[in-house]
Design goal:
The chain is an alpha+beta fold. It has helices spanning 17-56, 61-77, 91-107, 115-159, 168-221, 231-268, 371-385, 394-407, 415-418, 429-436, 455-458, 475-483, 501-505, 530-545, 623-684, 703-722, and strands at 292-300, 306-316, 319-323, 331-335, 340-344, 352-356, 363-367, 511-522, 552-558, 562-566, 573-578, 582-587, 594-604, 610-619. 51% of the residues lie in helices and 14% in strands. Helix 8 (394-407) packs across helix 14 (530-545).
């Protein structure tokens, strides 16, 4: 006999849509068996009635018995045309029935069956199969349907427990109702599966055993017709009898195995009947990369109203699939590659979590049955979002990642041991230095040796970690707002107004990246990218310990003047970092989606030391590209600053030359004016010829009088020159 198809009893507790679909196939097969058995029973009962009528009215025997035998042979020939969903390709059974049909046709002309033998060997097995086994299937089907409905009602009532009004009495009654209905549903379903699996064996016995009894009665009755029943037919019937016994033994063995499986599952599933089991007894598995189960999905029905639909959800690669009960296959709910998942608080439901697609356009809010299920779904989707499922051993890698996050809480003796997996390699040191070191004017400086660094030199002990973006109110911006006067309108969203819009619009570099904020904390040392690796380790470890999965998604705008974190919904600037304050920017060596930068503020503390903060992000792109973009912006800003300074210096030199030329021209003009005045004075002071006296003689001056006159002229010229 070929292999017998069976329902998997182990999957009764999960009760997935696939199991329900398979159950529907078995129920359809049971209905087909019932229909066919009813027709076969009528045909054999007709043979029996014909034999009884033969004893009473001999004149009706030939027609009735021949017609009944011919009808039986016809039904046996039509077996291969019957569409049994589970036995459509049973060629052995079809060929066996064809042999039976052939021999029945040969014996139809001389049949006469004893009523007692027919009643015991033919009618009893098929009547017992019809009255006991088929009715048992129908009864179990009704009981299973009632148990399934009660279980759904209990789950629905449990899901609608109020979060605000926590009544312990009502909660206890509801949980007890869920426990009772789930246990009853599981046990009823397992026994129903057992009956359907047993039916696959009984249907063969119920068809073959009456035929075997019928043929044996014919052989014993027709001793004179042995020429029709050759040794070949006797061997064939012997083989059929042996096959029936083998099927019966196989059925008994399978029944024992399935009953033992039911007992084991009942003992192992007792803790799972509780809707919210104790985490100490049923721990949370955070290393899963595949998960399936029933969840309640929130659907909006209006502006403020919503409804919850219960569906079967399962992960398939990087997709979240959903399948309603009664559907043959599941449909795509959303792509969970690079998505973000976090636990959320709903007003009317507990154990809810939210999945947001990588582009932020699609959001799904789901409710699990327990806190354990909720945390496992969040951890599984988080592992899938990191694309761990694409590796060869996804669960092993997920376990190693989670173990590393837990071990990161305990400090290691040395910095080098603690960062063995996070430190850039020797070959990649030059590239990391080129990418991360953007300290001043685009200059690149190599990181100091790791051996001289310690944990205290990078991050201060007990430093608080900020997991959400809070737009700060800067005193500098407040002072500028006061200086601008009362007529200036303030920005209610906290955007900084120190940079005019034209400055960012005229910037040469404009690059936009989608990032998710992981956290930030104050650091001590900002000389190398190792401080970023240490900050990544502490923030990821803190998120893993405290089960913080929520991340704020923003748009990171990189320009030549600053870095901006913009709200993707409202386009409001959440934070603005001047490019000159970005000291170091680097990405993680293994997980390229992680990157961070160190920001050194201009304002200091009370002790005068500058505040240095490290920000860590997760991006959809390669983090190294973002760091390259920041480095490019620093270089462009450096060259722009150098060009600006050169232009200013040239303008100052030009102004100095113009001023010098102007001074020279003024000096020449003064000299020219002085020469002109000297010439005029000299011309006006020249002596006139002496006039003759009345007597015709000239007045002759003495030598001393002439010298005094010359000295007076020179004194006047000198005074005028000084003036």
């Amino acid at each position: 006999m070929p292999g017998i198809d069976k329902l998997p009893i182990e999957e009764t507790f999960e009760d997935s849509p696939q199991t329900r679909s398979l159950l529907g196939v078995f129920e359809e097969d049971a209905a087909a068996i019932s229909n066919y058995s009813q027709k076969l029973f009528q045909a054999m009962n007709r043979i029996y009635d014909a034999q009884v009528s033969n004893e009473l009215w001999d004149q009706f025997m030939p027609n009735e018995l021949s017609a009944a035998t011919h009808l039986t042979s016809k039904l046996l020939k039509e077996y291969e045309k019957q569409r049994f969903p589970l036995c459509s390709d049973d060629e052995v059974m079809s060929s066996t029935l064809q042999h039976f049909a052939k021999v029945i046709d040969e014996l139809s002309s001389c049949h006469a069956v004893l009523s007692t033998q027919l009643a015991d060997a033919m009618m009893f097995p098929i009547t017992q199969f019809k009255e006991r086994d088929l009715k048992e299937i129908l009864t179990l089907k009704e009981v299973f349907q009632i148990a399934s409905d009660d279980h759904d009602m209990a789950i629905n009532r449990y899901s609608r427990l109020s979060k605000r009004r926590d009544n312990e009495k009502v909660k206890g009654e509801v949980m007890e109702d869920v426990y009772t209905s789930r246990k009853k549903h599981h046990q009823t379903m397992m026994h129903y599966f057992l009956a359907l699996n047993t039916l696959q064996y009984k249907k063969k016995i119920a068809i073959l055993e009456p035929l075997l009894g019928y043929m044996q009665a014919q052989i014993s009755f027709f001793k004179l017709g042995s020429e029709n029943l050759t040794q070949q037919w006797e061997d064939f019937l012997t083989n059929i009898g042996t096959s029936v016994q083998n099927v019966r033994r196989e059925m008994d063995g399978e029944v024992d195995v399935m009953q033992q499986t039911i007992q084991d599952l009942e003992q192992a599933s007792d803790l799972l009947y509780m809707p919210d089991p104790d985490p100490s007894q049923v721990p949370v598995n955070r290393n899963l990369t595949r998960k399936a189960g029933y969840l309640n999905r929130r659907n909006k029905t209006g502006l403020v109203s919503s409804s919850w639909d219960r569906q079967y959800f399962f992960t398939q690669g990087g997709n979240l699939m959903g399948q309603a009960r009664g559907h043959v296959a599941g449909g795509l709910v959303m792509d969970i590659d690079n998505c973000s998942v976090m636990a959320v608080d709903c007003e009317d439901r507990r154990f809810c979590f939210q999945i947001t697609s990588f582009d932020g356009k699609k959001v799904a809010i789901l409710q699990a049955d327990s806190r354990k299920d909720c945390e496992e779904w969040i951890a599984t989707i988080n592992n899938i979002s990191k694309r761990i499922y694409l590796s060869e051993n996804p669960e092993e890698i997920a376990a190693r990642v989670n173990q590393s996050a837990l071990e990161a809480v305990t400090p290691s003796p040395s910095f080098q041991q603690r960062h063995e997996s996070m430190r850039p390699s020797t070959q990649g040191r030059s590239r990391a230095a080129r990418t991360s070191s953007v300290s001043s004017a685009g200059s690149e400086t190599a990181s100091p040796a790791l051996s001289v660094l310690s944990l205290d030199s990078l991050v201060a002990p007990d430093t608080p970690i900020q997991f959400d973006i809070i737009s700060p109110v800067s005193e500098e911006y407040a002072g500028q707002a006061k200086a601008a006067g009362q007529g200036r309108r303030t920005n209610p969203f906290g955007e900084s107004g120190d940079t005019p819009p034209e400055a960012s619009e005229d910037s040469i570099l404009h690059q936009l990246f989608i990032v998710r904020f992981l956290g930030s904390m104050e650091v001590k040392n900002a000389d190398s990218s190792d401080v970023i690796y240490e900050t990544m380790r502490q923030i990821l470890a803190a998120r893993a310990i405290h089960n913080i999965f929520r991340m704020t998604e923003s748009h990171l705008l990189v320009t030549c003047e600053c870095l901006k974190l913009i709200d993707p919904q409202t386009q409001v600037t959440r934070l603005r970092f001047p490019l000159s304050s970005v000291v170091v920017c680097s990405s993680h060596q293994e997980n390229k989606r992680l990157f961070g930068f160190v920001l050194q503020t201009a304002e200091g503390r009370v002790d005068g030391r500058a505040v240095t903060v490290c920000y860590i992000f997760e991006s959809n792109n390669d983090g190294e590209k973002i760091c390259d973009s920041v480095g490019l912006a620093k270089q462009i800003a450096f060259h722009s600053e150098m060009d600006r300074k050169a232009t200013e210096k040239k303008e100052e030199q030009d102004k100095a030359k113009e001023k010098q030329q102007e001074e020279l021209s003024k000096q020449k003009q003064i000299e020219k004016d002085l020469e002109e005045q000297s010439r005029l004075i000299a011309a006006s002071s020249r002596p006139t010829p002496p006039a003759p006296s009345a007597d015709g003689q000239f007045l002759v001056l003495s030598k001393s009088q002439s010298e005094d006159s010359d000295a007076g002229v020179e004194g006047r010229e000198k005074g005028e020159s000084e003036a």
